[in-house]
Design brief:
It holds the Pfam family NAD_binding_9. By secondary structure, the protein is α/β, with parallel strands linked by helices. 37% of the residues lie in helices and 13% in strands. It is globular and about 75 Å long.
Length: 575
C-alpha cells in the first residue's frame, strides 16, 4: 500500500472514531419486513426521548425494494400469492388505529384502489410488497427528522466485534457502530442443502422466477421435474403455466386449465414424503363461527399453563393432547357427522405421518381439503387440526420460545411441526384448485411423487429419470423448489462468520441462533451480547414461528428499540 493511500485510510478511520464518539451509530443489516419493523419501532422510541446525542442510522439492503426485500418485491408476477390473509398484515406497532397515514394493509389498499379489498383475501405478494415499500418510505421520512439516515444498497459480508463497538465490512466501505441489528431473512435467493443421496444432477433454484423459469431457461413442451411439493412448488408451477399465458377458469365447483402451448409438456413434482400442503380456508367462503373462539381460548390457556421447559411426557401426553382436544371440539361444533374424540384426531395424524404417501392418497387429500376450504364439504378432522394449530400457535410461540422445550424433545417437536406446516399453513384454496386443474389437464403428473431422480444416459448432467414401481419418465429440466432451512446460514454471509468466530451460538436441540427476548445473542457464559441483535429467521427454534408478517406474534423489534433508546438516553445523561 502506498503512503498517501495508507494515510488516507488512517485519517478516515480516525474521523469515523471521532464521529462515533460524538454520536450514537446504529446499523440495520437487511431491510426486508423485519428490518422495517425494527426501524418503525426505533422511530417510535426516538420520538419519545426528551433529548439525545446525534444519532446516525445506516441501513444496508442490497435489493431494490427496502421494506419488502426479495420475497415481497413489488415487481414480481401477481400470480404469486400470499398464504396469509390480508386482514392480518399491519406494519405498524404502537400506532393508533385511527392514524390515516400509518395504517394496516386493508385500509392502505382501499385508499389506493377503487374496488375494496376483502380482508379475508390472499392477495399477490407484489401488492403486499408495494405496501411494505410505502411503509418504509414513511418510516424513513420520520427517522430523518430524528437522526442522520443513509440507505446503502450493498451487502454486508463480515462483522467483527471490537472493544466498544462493532465493525462492519461491505464491498464498498467499512464502518464502526455502537448498535448493530441483523434482520437478513433468507439471505438472498440461493439453493437449499443437497438431496439426501449424493447426485451429479443440477437443480437450479426456482427463484428468482423470471430469470430461472423463463422460456430461455425452461423451453416450452419439455418435461420438468420439480424437487419439493410445498408452497414453492406451487409458485414454480404457476410460473410455468399461468406465467406462460395459460388461463385458469373457475367453472362450477372446480377450476379448469386452458393451455397456451408455451408451458412444459409435463411438470413432475417429487418429494421424500409425498404429502401435500392442504388448502387454507378463505373465511369469506367458509366463515368461522364465533363459538370457536372459546375453544381456541381454552386451548391457549392450557398451553400457557404447561411447565417450562416442556419435557417428553408433557410433549406427548399434555401438549399434543391439548391440540387434539381443541381440534375434536372444533369439528364436533359443526355436527353432521359422528362424534369425534381427541384419540381419533391423534389416530388420524398418526396415519397421515406414516411413511411416504402414495400419489392417489395425496391427490385425494388435496381434493378434499379444497372442498372443505371453499365451503363445499363439511369440516373434517384435517381442517380441525389445522385450525387448532393456527389458533393455538401464539400460545405455542410463548411457551416454546427461549428454551421452553427440553433440548432432547426438539427432534420430535420438529417432526410434528413439519407435518403441521402442511396441514395448517398451506396455500390459499384457489391455488390448490389450480393445481388440481393442472392434474386433471395432464400437465402436472403426480405419479412419481416419491421417486428418487437418477442420472440418465445423456451426457447432460441436468437430465434425469424418475421411476415408480411400474414406469419411468425422462426429465429434460430439473428445478429445486426447496428453500434453505433457517439453520442453513449463507456461507458468505455475516451470520456464518459470527458463528465461526464463536460470537454467537446455537440453542442446543433447536439449532436456532440463541438470543434473549431483545434479540441479543447469548454468549458461551450465558450473557447477552451488548450492541448486537439478531431478529428473525436465523433464530428459528430459539424463537418459534419467524416466517410471518405478523407484528402481534413476536415483539423483539419493539423490545430491541426500547433497549436502544435507553442506551442513548444513558449516554446523554453521562455527558
Amino acid at each position: 500500500m502506498n503512503a498517501p493511500l495508507a494515510m488516507s485510510i488512517a485519517n478516515a478511520e480516525a474521523s469515523a472514531k471521532s464521529s462515533r464518539a460524538s454520536s450514537f451509530k446504529i446499523a440495520i443489516v437487511g431491510c426486508g419486513p423485519r428490518g422495517l419493523y425494527c426501524l418503525q419501532s426505533l422511530s417510535e422510541q426516538l420520538r419519545q426521548l426528551p433529548r439525545s446525542p446525534r444519532v446516525v442510522i445506516d441501513i444496508f439492503e442490497p435489493t431494490e425494494f427496502p421494506g419488502a426485500g426479495n420475497v415481497y418485491a413489488p415487481c414480481q408476477p401477481h400470480y404469486l400469492k400470499m398464504n396469509f390473509a390480508a386482514k392480518h398484515i399491519n406494519a405498524w406497532a404502537g400506532v393508533s388505529e385511527d392514524d390515516a397515514e400509518r395504517c394496516n394493509l386493508v385500509r392502505w389498499f382501499n385508499r389506493e384502489h377503487p374496488v375494496p379489498l376483502d380482508p379475508n383475501d390472499f392477495i399477490p405478494r407484489a401488492v403486499v410488497g408495494a405496501y411494505l415499500r410505502e411503509c418504509f418510505q414513511s418510516v424513513h421520512a420520520e427517522l430523518r427528522t430524528l437522526a442522520d439516515v443513509t440507505l446503502h444498497r450493498c451487502k454486508v459480508t463480515q462483522i467483527q466485534g471490537r472493544d466498544t463497538c462493532w465493525r462492519l465490512h461491505t464491498d464498498r466501505f467499512n464502518g464502526e457502530y455502537d448498535e448493530l441489528v441483523l434482520t437478513v431473512g433468507h439471505e438472498g435467493w440461493r439453493s437449499s442443502e443437497p438431496m439426501s443421496k449424493p447426485t451429479p444432477l443440477k437443480f437450479p433454484p426456482a427463484f428468482p422466477i423470471r430469470e430461472n423459469l423463463g422460456r430461455h431457461a425452461v423451453p416450452p413442451r419439455t418435461t420438468v421435474a420439480i424437487r419439493g411439493f410445498g408452497l414453492t412448488w406451487i409458485d414454480a408451477t404457476l410460473a410455468l403455466t399461468m406465467g406462460r399465458g395459460g388461463i385458469f377458469d373457475e367453472s362450477g365447483e372446480n377450476w379448469r386449465y386452458l393451455p397456451s402451448g408455451e408451458e412444459p409438456r409435463r411438470i413432475v413434482p417429487f418429494s421424500r414424503s409425498g404429502r401435500p400442503m392442504l388448502a387454507k380456508p378463505n373465511e369469506s367462503l367458509f366463515p368461522q363461527p364465533v363459538a370457536l373462539d372459546a375453544i381456541w381460548s381454552r386451548g391457549c390457556e392450557s398451553i400457557d399453563a404447561l411447565p417450562s421447559p416442556i419435557a417428553g411426557c408433557d410433549l406427548r401426553s399434555a401438549l399434543w393432547r391439548i391440540i387434539a382436544r381443541a381440534a375434536a371440539s372444533a369439528v364436533n361444533h359443526f355436527g353432521g357427522r359422528g362424534f369425534v374424540t381427541p384419540a381419533e384426531v391423534q389416530s388420524w395424524f398418526a396415519v397421515w405421518c406414516r411413511g411416504a404417501m402414495q400419489p392417489e392418497a395425496s391427490l385425494a387429500a388435496m381434493r378434499q381439503s379444497y372442498r372443505v376450504a371453499t365451503g363445499r364439504a363439511a369440516p373434517d378432522v384435517p381442517w380441525a387440526l389445522g385450525a387448532a394449530w393456527r389458533n393455538l400457535y401464539p400460545a405455542l410461540v410463548r411457551r416454546i420460545s427461549y428454551g421452553g422445550l427440553a433440548a432432547e424433545q426438539w427432534p420430535t417437536f420438529r417432526r410434528v411441526a413439519t407435518e403441521m406446516e402442511r396441514i395448517a399453513f398451506g396455500p390459499p384454496a384457489d391455488n390448490v384448485g389450480r393445481m388440481l386443474a393442472l392434474v386433471d389437464a395432464g400437465v402436472v403428473d403426480l405419479r412419481f411423487l416419491t421417486a428418487e431422480p437418477r442420472p440418465s444416459d445423456s451426457s447432460q448432467s441436468s437430465v434425469c429419470t424418475l421411476a415408480n414401481d411400474r414406469e419411468n419418465v425422462t426429465i429434460d429440466h430439473c428445478i429445486d423448489a426447496v428453500l434453505p432451512s433457517p439453520y442453513q446460514l449463507h456461507r458468505s454471509g455475516p451470520l456464518h462468520g459470527l458463528l465461526d468466530a464463536d460470537i454467537i451460538q446455537r440453542l442446543h436441540g433447536s439449532e436456532g441462533i440463541l438470543v434473549d427476548r431483545l434479540g441479543r445473542p447469548i454468549d458461551g457464559k450465558g450473557r447477552p451480547t451488548l450492541g448486537l441483535a439478531i431478529i428473525g429467521r436465523a433464530t428459528e427454534g430459539c424463537v418459534l414461528g419467524n416466517d410471518t408478517l405478523s407484528r402481534s406474534l413476536h415483539d423483539q423489534p419493539q423490545r430491541w428499540a426500547a433497549d436502544v433508546a435507553t442506551r442513548i438516553q444513558v449516554l446523554q445523561e453521562n455527558r
